[in-house]
Amino acid sequence: MTLSKRIALVAHDARKDDLIAWAKENSQALTDHDLFATGTTGKWIQNQCGLFVTRLKSGPLGGDQQLGAMIAEGRLDMIIFFWDPMAAQPHDVDVKALLRMSVLYNIPSACNRATADFMVSSPLFSGPYE
Predict the structure, then answer these.
(1) Which of 67, 70, 75, 121 would you call most buried, defined as having the most Cβ atoms within 10 angstroms of its Cβ?
(2) Would residue 64 show up in a list of annotated catalytic residues for this protein?
């Protein structure tokens, strides 16, 4: 990984507000990185946080699979995915596949605010990593 990371930001509907609040608080740290997000999440991050985000398809329409492909192709360095553990998702299989890819390819993944805080505050976040 280079100094500038390629970071996916994803959130289920019930967790979008949490991710937006987190992104606002960490917007300075995120500015120097290439951000990717699924559909509505990306739109909200751009509009509410002022960060440039490359938007993919909505999760249920293939966005999670696009992120999985990016991982497999070596085009994504980390993922911050605030998923909702209390609600069944119509695309649950895609979510599981995305998380599987992140583990398989050793991609740092945060599924909650505490883990995302640890990731962004690590010296590795803004430095190289082999």
Answers:
(1) 67
(2) yes
Cβ contact 91:99 at 8 Å: no
Residue 43 token pair? 């739109």
Given the residues 17, 18, 32, 64, select the one marked as catalytic: 64
Express each pLDDT in 70-98 by its tens digit: 999 999 999 999 987 777 776 778 888 99
Compute CA 81 distance to the chain's CA centroid, rounded to the nearest angstrom: 5
Burial (CB count within 10 angstroms: exposed 0-12, middle 13-18, buried 19+), residue 104: exposed
Q: What is the largest CA-CA distance in the chain?
A: 37
pTM for the whole thing? 0.93
